[in-house]
Structures are given as structure tokens and as C-alpha cells.
Amino acid sequence: MRILLVEDNARLAALITDGLSAQGYAVDWSENLGSARHALEISSYDLLLVDLGLPDGDGLELIRSMRRGKNPAPVLVLTARGGLDDRVVGLDAGADDYLVKPFQMPELAARCRALLRRPNVSLNTVLSSGNVTLDPATRSISVSETPIEATPREVTLLESLLRREGQVVARTALENSLYAMSAEVTPNALEATMSRLRKRLAANSASIEIKTVHGIGYALYSRKQHHD
């Protein structure tokens, strides 16, 4: 899951980025409208977190321009403007939810999960293949209905592959889901995460396999499906 955070307070942005990254989200940070617009031009996002009082304008303008451009990504407004009229204006501009500062990270994370669970959004359904089940809302993996431990990046990687079961997923698409723009990614970082995920699944007798398509990416199959 990739999130764009638009927030001019560097300290708050770092806290949000660290908190959501620890849960497996890839978070890109923009500190003004200009950089946010540029990020939207070059990347697609599953969710936006938008402050309203930005150095070069109002975050509502970004939301309005997104909706005019038919960008359907859910938007959670983060702002100190807590009045009823402010919330109404934000929602009418195209925001999906409104969280007043100061807030606690558990509430922000819960609001993000709630928005991503909405119909036609990425976290709407539980994913499964063979005896493996992944619940995107709780970021949990089960094999034969038994929960297994996995790192946030392993969960995100498996989720990306499950969503495209039987299809080759390009390594660039997987890297985009795992790492923020600012992350320093070593050349074999994806392979290392993939190796750990494969070992974890094998150790728990998962009936799926992840094939390497050299030079392109990876594809996930249930063993029954692949051998039929």
C-alpha cells in the first residue's frame, strides 16, 4: 500500500511516516502543494493524507483538483481546523474523512484502514490462494487457518502477488509498493525480502509457490493450479 502524506510540519511528518512505515505502508512525503502535485503526476497512491494549511496554498485545492481529474484515491484530511463548518467544507471538496490535530497514531492507522476497506478500494476483501489467507485490513497472514508471523514488508509483498495471482508482477511494481521514493534501496533488497517470504511460507507448509520470471518479476500460483 502506497500513501502520499502532504504535511509541512517536518517533525509531525516524520512521526506519521515512521508510524505507518512500521505497519508496512510505503509513505511518500510532500511538504507543499507543488511537490504533492508532482508526486501525483509520477506515481499512483492508494491513500492520501492531506494537511490544509500549506506554505503555498490550501490542501483543499489539491483535493478539488484530484476530484476534477477523476482521481478516486481516498483522502484523509489532517488539520487543526476542527470546526463543524471546516469539516463540511473539507468533505464537500472531496475528502473522505477528517482527523483533527493533535491525534494519536493508533487512531490515524485505524482511519487509514477504514478508508482502505471501503468498496472499490484495495483493502476491501480477504485474499487467499491454496491454504494461504491474507487479511489486508489487519495485515495478517494465515496458513491452513493458523496465523503466522511475518514482517510488514513480507505482508505487503505477498499481498501484491496475491492480488495478481497467476500473473507476472514486474519487479518495479513490487518495489513501488514496498519502498517510498526517499528510501535508499539496495539492488538486492527485493530479492532478500522475497527469499525470507518464501522460506517462511515453506516452513509453514503453504500450498503456494512464487516463481521468478527472470528479467521481469515474479508470479504467484497455488500448487494445484500450477500443476493442473
Reconstruct the topology from this structure.
Layout: E1 2-6, H1 10-21, E2 26-30, H2 33-42, E3 47-51, E4 53-54, E5 57-58, H3 59-68, E6 75-79, H4 84-92, E7 97-100, H5 105-116, E8 127-129, E9 132-135, E10 140-143, E11 146-148, H6 152-162, E12 168-170, H7 171-178, H8 189-203, E13 208-213, E14 217-222, H9 223-227
Parallel strand pairs: 1-2, 1-3, 3-6, 6-7
Antiparallel strand pairs: 4-5, 8-9, 9-10, 10-11, 12-14, 13-14
Helix pairs in contact: 6-8
End-to-end span in angstroms?
Answer: 32 Å
- According to CATH, what is the topology of the largest domain? Rossmann fold
Looking at how many chains there are and whether they match, the oligomeric state comes to single chain
Structural class per helix/strand content?
alpha/beta
pLDDT < 50 runs, ≥5 residues: none
What percentage of the residues does DSSP assign to strands (E)? 25-35%
The biggest sheet, with number of strands, parallel, antiparallel or mixed sense and barrel status, is: 5 strands, parallel
CATH class category label of the largest domain: Alpha Beta
List SSEs in N-to-C order.
Answer: EHEHEEEHEHEHEEEEHEHHEEH
Spatial arrangement of strands, main beta sheet? 2-1-3-6-7
Domain count: the total is: 2
How does this model look, in words?
The chain has helices at 10-21, 33-42, 59-68, 84-92, 105-116, 152-162, 171-178, 189-203, 223-227; strands at 2-6, 26-30, 47-51, 53-54, 57-58, 75-79, 97-100, 127-129, 132-135, 140-143, 146-148, 168-170, 208-213, 217-222. The protein has 228 residues and is α/β, with parallel strands linked by helices. The strands form 4 sheets. It has a 5-stranded parallel sheet with strand order 2-1-3-6-7, sandwiched between helices. Strands 8-9-10-11 form a 4-stranded antiparallel sheet, covered by helices on one side. A hairpin with a 3-residue loop joins strand 13 (208-213) and strand 14 (217-222). Helix 6 crosses helix 8. The longest helix has 15 residues, at 189-203. The mean pLDDT is 87.
